[in-house]
Design brief:
With 95 residues, the protein is mainly alpha-helical. The protein has two helices and no strands. Helix 1 runs antiparallel to helix 2. The N and C termini lie far apart (67 Å).
């Protein structure tokens, strides 16, 4: 399209593992903080707001492929030229 080519960076396996752990930590911290804040305010609505902000923060931290998640790229092998099979000529046996 218009002669432009974009390469989308991708997370490696170690980056995916780190992003998953980070997501659990962020959601857990905001969940506990939201529960405590909602309990102190006696309002489930406040709990919902804090957990919603935690979900937004986790999404902004984990979803984009930040450079921290791309430190261990996989080495790809270059493709080799295909080898054509040789023709095998079988001789017929005389009975």
């Amino acid at each position: 399209m218009l002669g432009l080519e974009f390469k989308v960076p991708e997370m490696d396996f170690e980056g995916q593992k780190m992003a998953e752990i980070l997501q659990y930590v962020i959601l857990g911290v905001f969940g506990i903080a939201g529960f405590i804040w909602g309990y102190l305010c006696e309002s489930f609505e406040q709990t919902f707001y804090v957990v919603s902000v935690g979900s937004l923060v986790a999404s902004l931290v984990v979803l984009p492929p930040w450079p921290a998640f791309r430190k261990n790229p996989l080495p790809f092998h270059h493709s080799e030229a295909p080898v054509k099979p040789k023709k095998v000529i079988q001789k017929k046996k005389k009975n």
